[in-house]
Each structure stands twice: as structure tokens, then as C-alpha cells.
Amino acid sequence: MTKIVFLTLLALCLALEIFGLKLEQCPPGFRCRKRTTSLLMRSIISKIEEEEMDVEICEAGTYSPGGADECTPCEKGTYAAKPGAPACYFCPKGHMCPRADVVPEQCPLGTYNDLSRQTCCRVCQPGKFALLKGMFQCDDCPSGYRCRARAKLPCEDEAMETTTTTTTTTTTRTSESIITRTTTPTIDEETVTGVLNRHNWTDIGAVIDVTGSMAACYAQIDQWLALSHTNKLVQYFVFFNDGDNTPNKDKVIGSTGGIYAVHTNEGIDKVLTTLNTAKSNGGGGDGPENDIEAIIYTIANCSTCENIIHIADNQATPRDLILLGEVTKPIKVIVCKYIPGTLVNPKLLDIAYKTGGSLHTLDLDIETLGSLKVGDTIQVGTGTYLLDVTGFIRIV
Ligand SMILES: *[C@@H]1O[C@H](CO)[C@@H](O)[C@H](O)[C@H]1NC(C)=O
Ligand SMILES: *[C@@H]1O[C@H](CO)[C@@H](O)[C@H](O)[C@H]1NC(C)=O
């Protein structure tokens, strides 16, 4: 690249040497000045000396529209990252340009820029956060957390750092933001966040039972979104309510419905609206739900979802386990409404085992189910489970 610029420049200079150049002809991105020739040279080539120009490329951070004897420095908030610029470019939103001679920098974590042509990003206000780079705006702090910006950008004059005193239980730290939990979460609230924190799963499709008393299991949904530093953590949410209040007798296995899906990149608000719609359109009626139908829906409709997590109700058995054979990806079952030290619903072990997946609770990750053979037993919590030809049976 540099070579090409150099060669072009060389060719241009040679051309100018030969044909001479008037200032009006000075090309864009260059400056042209009368050559100061030595006295000796001047006497020899006095005739053409009048016309001869020194042509120089404009350095990065400066520009020339053409016909200029000087390059002009870029205005504040604009940039020209390469030499020879005919104009400077506006620094885009979500970026800052503290220097005019380099490419714009994405706003660091904890900062944003809602305007273009800025030399510096702004630090999020207290109670707001930006866990992604290049944000146009900050998001509201997730419920149950307190957010404060720790950023003090080198280019920032008016520091907006707040010094809120908090009773810190746990913190999620990024280079420039700090999110502090303010309330003690319940076990159910903690389970999914805990499991997500323990693993580096990306491109997740999350299948979530929203019936009955599952609310605590997804109460922290906005925080899962906030945890997704790369925006890749949960890509697709599927909420199911077992048939939108269809009478139990009319529910058909495999097409019960009441399944609502949303891509995370549609925004946190859309995710929460979809969740609320799913929740308010049906409560499940009887105990068993259409978990497997929702899992199949997720896999079919999100080809880029690498990791399928199933946030399951430990106190209800899916009605459609018969569909498990149609599940084509390993399912990571996260057991909600489970009290540590008590029993795990063996049907949830079946979902994990039969799909080649795993089972997770607040304090357990069981990832070796695949190595079990019929007749083997496994200890989960206080229970002992035997694997027979139909699936797991609790024996102790
Ligand atoms: C997750 O990633 C972090 C940082 O790359 C690494 O330190 C940690 O060991 C990983 N955890 C797992 C369970 O792979
Ligand atoms: C995929 O989503 C569409 C709605 O967008 C739905 O009608 C369809 O049943 C889903 N596919 C499966 C296999 O569930």
C-alpha cells in the first residue's frame, strides 16, 4: 500500500519535474510550493525556474482540496488517517477522534457517543452502562444492579466518574465499567447467571419455560444480556407457555404452540416485550409443558445457535418427551426451581442424556452423561439414578 502511494507520488513528481506546474494545477491531497533553487542552479536553469514547484503529499491529519500551497490541518472531530487526503472525514457516531491522523477509535466500554465529529466519547451517566464498544448510547443498569462508570478517558476534561458507595456482594468487571449487585439474588435467579458465568458458551439459543412460577428463573434476563460482552452470549430467545391457554384436552403433542422467539440483536426492549407477551398469553394450564417442541423450534429457526440451553422447571415433566428423537443438537439443561441437595427430575437427565448434552444446577455441571451405559448409576445431588433402557430412574 505504502509502496503504491510512494510510486504514484514518484511518478507524479517526475511528471511535474518534466512539465513544470502552476499552483492552480496542484492536485488534491498535495501542496505545491515554488522551488528554492540554489543560486548556481538558478543561473543555469533560470528560464524554467519560475515555473518549478516542490510538490509534497499532505501528511496524515491534513488535507488539501487541490491548488494549495499548504496542507490544512483537519478540523476538530474530523480525520485523515492516510497521507494525500483531498478532505478530512467526519468522526462517526460511537467513535472518537482525539487525533486527526489516525482512524477513529470505537468508544471504549462504559462510554458512548451519540454525535459525530467528536474528539472524545462520553462516559455513561450513573445508573447506565455500556458493555459493548462503539455504543451510540448507554443502556439502563439491569435491575438489581448498580452501575457506575469508572472510565476517565484521557481526552475527557469533565470527569463524570461517580463515587457511589455500595454494599458489594459480587461485581462484574470490565476495563471501564463496574456493575455492582445491590440485592441478594434467590437461588433460582442465581442459577442461570451462575451457569452462564461458569462457561464460555457463545451463540446461545435459550429455550425458556415461562409458565407457572418460573419467573425467578429468568428474572435476571436483562443481566444475561448485559453479561454478553461480545453480544454473542445469547443470540436467540425462545419463550414457551404450553399452548397460549389452549384447554389441556385440545393440546396436540408437537404442535401445542405458545412459542415466542426473538433475536437478541433486535434489542433488549424487544426481548423483554416478547417475554411479556409469551407470559401473558398463557400460563401452561396443567403441569407438563411443551419443552421439546420449543427446543425443536429453536434449533430449526436459529441455524447459527451453537449452544442450546433449556431453562427447565424441575417440578414439571415435559409432556412431549416422545419428540426427543427429533432434537438434533446437544441440549444443555439448566435446572431451575431446584433446591440444592434435593432431587433432580430424572426426565431432565433424560433430555440431557438422549441429546448428548449436559445438565447444570446452581452448583453442579454434569457433562459426562454420554459415557454412561444402561445399568450404570449416577449420583446427582442427594439422589442416585439408574440408567435403564427407557432413561433414568431414581433408585435412592
Ligand atoms: C473461559 O475463558 C476464560 C478467559 O479466556 C478462561 O480463563 C477460562 O478458563 C475459560 N473457562 C472455561 C470453563 O473454559
Ligand atoms: C420456525 O418458526 C416459524 C415461525 O417463524 C414457525 O412457524 C415454525 O414452526 C418454526 N419451525 C419449527 C420446526 O418449529
From TrEMBL:
InterPro entries, per the entry: Growth_fac_rcpt_cys_sf (IPR009030), Tyr-kin_ephrin_A/B_rcpt-like (IPR011641)
Signal peptide: 1-15
Superkingdom per UniProt: Eukaryota
Keyword annotations from UniProtKB, A to Z: Signal
Domain Tyrosine-protein kinase ephrin type A/B receptor-like intervals: 61-95
Coiled coil: none
Name of the protein in question: Tyrosine-protein kinase ephrin type A/B receptor-like domain-containing protein
